Every structure is written in structure tokens, then in C-alpha cells.
Amino acid sequence: MAMVLDLGLAPEVLGQWTEPRVLVSEFVEGALLSAVPDRVHATALVGQALAKLHKHTQGVVMTGPISDPYSGTAWILNQVKSEAPATAETFAWTMDILARIQAARGPYTPSLLHSDVSEGNVIILPDRAVLIDWEYVGAGDPYYDVGDFAEKVKLSSSEEEALLCAYDGVLVPTSLAMARLYRFVSMLREALWSVRAGTTGFTEFDYANYARACLARMREISQSSEFADSLHLLENTNQGEMNDLRQRHS
Q1: Does the pLDDT at position 243 exceed 70?
Q2: Are strands 138-140 and 122-124 parallel, antiparallel or unpaired?
Q3: How far apart are CA 51 and CA 171, in angstroms?
């Protein structure tokens, strides 16, 4: 919290107790994305906030159980397997796609991630965006936060491009492709979390129905032309880089 407070990306912490476990932060006077008149401008503010977070925490070593899009997803899946093995089998097809996304992404330098950039966790101010609810914070791929936000607030293609433009300073096709692939991972993580939370009675909520909705959305994403094009672009880009590397060594 000290790091993100210094960056002006989170509300000030006013108090913290261990029994009961409570953290109190200042109230931020702002609006949710759905309540702002200029959604594209607000989306750009979120892109700038995420860029600031990731740029200034690049290379941070801070393990979070679910912050990494790959090891974090595997961690939740293992929890589901132990509690609901039959349900876990319904996610077998998603693991193949996740492995392909990971291979297409290739190596990257982790940054500090918020890891749950949903509409309710983003407060829009006139000149900036503030993030709240940092309970899943940890190191991971910066573009996961971008794709997670794009999916959870259901950005259109043009809004998604505005987000990436603000994030990178210019629209980079490979960055846009990565964010689009992470929309699938965002829903995968949501579905697994819902199944896991449903076994613990975390709150009164229809976890099973939400998990089914996430699975349906994953199928929709994975069958879209945007997803296929994004995956092919990254795979071809990585293959080209590998060929260049082999030529230099030869």
C-alpha cells in the first residue's frame, strides 16, 4: 500500500486492526465508470493509472497467490480440484487454451498488479483514476490488469483501443493482442474463484450460476475472430523473434 499510495493510485489508509481484521481507508469522492458521461475519457484515465502502477513497480518481487495469470490460475484450479474434483474437470479445455496463451506471450518482466480491476474497484475523478480493494495485489504480467479491466467492464473494441493507447502512449498491435487474450484469462479466474468460493460459503451468492456464465463467456471469447487473430499475431511475432535470434547465433 505504501508503494501505490506514493504513486497517488490508492486512497490513504487511516487505520488497521488485526482483531477483527479490518483496514479503513479514506473515502474517495468520485464515480464508477458506468456513471461518467465520457466513457472513453474515463477509460483512458484508467489506462494511465495502470501504466503508472506497472512502470514504477517493474521488476518488483512480491508473490501473490493469484496475481500471476498462469501460476495464479493453476493455484486456484488446484483448490477447486481438492474441493470439487468433478467440477474441475469441466475446466480441462480451458487449460489447453491457457497454455497456448502463455506460450504466445513468452517471457516478460513482472510488475505489481492490482489483479481485480473491476468497475467497483475503480473510482473515476476528473483528472485521474484511483483503485481500491487491493486484497489480491502481487507480481505478474502487466497486461493482465489491462485485459482484466477490459473484460470486467465489457469495453467495446474502440474503447479497448483507447485504453491501450493511453496505457502505451500509442496503439501497439501486440499489446492490444495480449490484452484481448487476457480477457479470456480474466473470465477463467473469475469462474474458478466462484467455484472455490461456493465451496466455502464465503457470502450468499449464486456462485454456480456465475461460474456457468463465465464459462459461456470464455467459449464466446475463444471462438471470436479477435481472439484467433490476437493469438496468431503473438505466435507469429514470437516465432519471428526466435528465427532472428537463431540467425544471429549462426
Answers
A1: no
A2: unpaired
A3: 13
84 or 226, which is more confident: 226
Structural domains of the chain, ranges and CATH numbers in brackets: 32-249 (3.90.1200.10)
Burial 218-248, CB ≥16 within 10 A → b, else e: beebbeeeebeebbebbbeebeeeeeeeeee
3-state SS string for 165-214: HHHHCCCCHHHHHHHHHHHHHHHHHHHHHHHHHHHHCCCCCCHHHHHHHH
pLDDT band of 154, cuts 50, 70, 90: very high
* CB-based contact 76:185 (threshold 8 Å): no
Element (H, E) at 223: none
Contact 175, 168 (CB under 8 A): yes
Which neighbouring-strand residues pair with 31? 124
Rounded CA separation 153/47 (Å) = 13
Residue 246: is its pLDDT beyond 50? no
Task: Outline where the chain has alpha helix (H).
Answer: 2-6, 39-56, 71-83, 85-88, 92-105, 142-152, 157-168, 173-200, 207-222, 225-249
